[in-house]
């Protein structure tokens, strides 16, 4: 007669059979997990040892923008032997230039001036010059202006107007125009991201086209860009006082202000490793 469980009055061997089945099932599950892990790690090892190939893709992004600001730099310069008179002339011309800039609505905080004086050695380099030992040395007095023009798109004629009026009062030299875009850094950062996306899309397409199945890794290298300030050639340089006194005896040309739009570009090179 089978031994009864005192709590259930059921045969005790039924409980033992159930325990054996659960144990065997657990061992089976564990064996399957271990076997699957071995297979998986072997697969990973195979993949890591499998040969890979590389491809380089150039990503490009660009955007057309308009210039917001322009900086002009110019110089009034005088050379001679009478330092007191030269200093006086430079001061008078500086006042004229400042009055002219104010008349054209240039803000005072957008104007900087630096005055200098230094020996004039130009005569020493003339090929036919005689000994300068007994001559009175010349001195150069000059004042450099730096002028910023805000809201350029609504004042495109202003730089050319200033250049002509400044030449008329005695400005000798104009430096390159320097153009600015207010949110240039933000535009460049966004374009760099767009260039990376462009390279990734091209890379995925080309890897599939040549039979690649998986991208293993990517490496990004910075490429060319046009995100620096924009500088254009020197408008003009007056080298002769005679030309300054009577411009009709010489020809003075100016570079027109660049209007319209400028293309800002960002490029990145992405190296894809794939198999």
Task: Give a description of the structure.
The protein is built from five helices and nine strands. The chain has helices at residues 12-49, 83-103, 158-169, 184-209, 241-245, and strands at residues 53-66, 69-80, 111-120, 138-149, 173-174, 177-180, 215-225, 230-232, 261-274. The strands form two sheets. Strands 2, 3, 4, 5, 6 and 8 form a six-stranded antiparallel β-sheet that branches. A three-stranded antiparallel β-sheet has the order 1-9-7. Helix 2 (83-103) packs antiparallel against helix 3.
List the topology elements.
Blueprint: H1 12-49, E1 53-66, E2 69-80, H2 83-103, E3 111-120, E4 138-149, H3 158-169, E5 173-174, E6 177-180, H4 184-209, E7 215-225, E8 230-232, H5 241-245, E9 261-274
Antiparallel strand pairs: 1-9, 2-4, 2-5, 2-6, 3-4, 6-8, 7-9
Write a concise keyword list for the protein shown above.
single chain, 275 residues, three-stranded antiparallel β-sheet, 5 helices, 9 strands
Summarize the structure.
The protein is α+β, with helices and mostly antiparallel strands. It is built from 5 helices and 9 strands; from the N terminus they run αββαββαββαββαβ.
Helix content: 25-40%
Which word captures the global form? rod-shaped
Low-confidence spans: pLDDT under 50, at least 5 residues? Answer: 239-252
Radius of gyration (Å): 40 Å
Mean pLDDT: 79
Helix count from the secondary structure assignment: 5
Query: What does the main sheet amount to?
Result: 6 strands, antiparallel
Q: Tell me how many strands there are.
A: 9
Structural class: alpha+beta
Order of helices and strands: HEEHEEHEEHEEHE
Q: What is the percentage of strand-forming residues?
A: 25-35%
First-last Cα distance = 70 Å
């Amino acid at each position: 007669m089978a031994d009864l469980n005192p709590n259930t009055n059921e045969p005790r061997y039924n409980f033992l059979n159930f325990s054996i089945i659960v144990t065997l099932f657990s061992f089976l599950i564990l064996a399957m997990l271990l076997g699957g892990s071995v297979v998986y790690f072997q697969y990973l090892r195979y993949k890591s040892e499998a040969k890979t190939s590389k491809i380089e893709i150039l990503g490009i992004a660009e955007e057309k923008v308009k210039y917001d600001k322009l900086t002009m730099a110019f110089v009034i310069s005088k050379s001679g032997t009478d330092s007191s008179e030269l200093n006086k002339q430079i001061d008078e011309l500086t006042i004229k230039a400042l009055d002219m800039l104010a008349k054209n609505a240039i803000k005072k905080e957008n104007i900087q001036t630096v005055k200098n004086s230094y020996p004039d050695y130009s005569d020493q380099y003339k090929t036919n010059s005689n000994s300068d030992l007994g001559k009175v040395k010349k001195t150069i007095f000059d004042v450099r202006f730096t002028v910023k023009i805000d809201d350029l798109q609504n004042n495109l004629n202003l730089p050319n107007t200033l250049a002509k009026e400044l030449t008329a009062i005695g400005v000798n030299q104009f430096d390159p125009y320097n153009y600015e875009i207010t949110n240039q850094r933000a535009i460049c950062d966004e374009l760099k991201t767009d260039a990376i996306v462009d390279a990734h899309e091209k890379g995925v397409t080309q890897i599939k086209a040549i039979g690649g199945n998986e991208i293993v890794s990517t490496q990004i290298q910075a490429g060319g860009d046009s995100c620096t300030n924009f500088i254009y050639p020197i408008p003009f340089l007056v080298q002769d006082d005679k030309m300054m006194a009577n411009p009709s005896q010489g020809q003075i040309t100016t570079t027109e202000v660049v209007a319209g739009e400028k293309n800002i570009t960002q490029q990145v090179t992405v190296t894809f490793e794939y198999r």
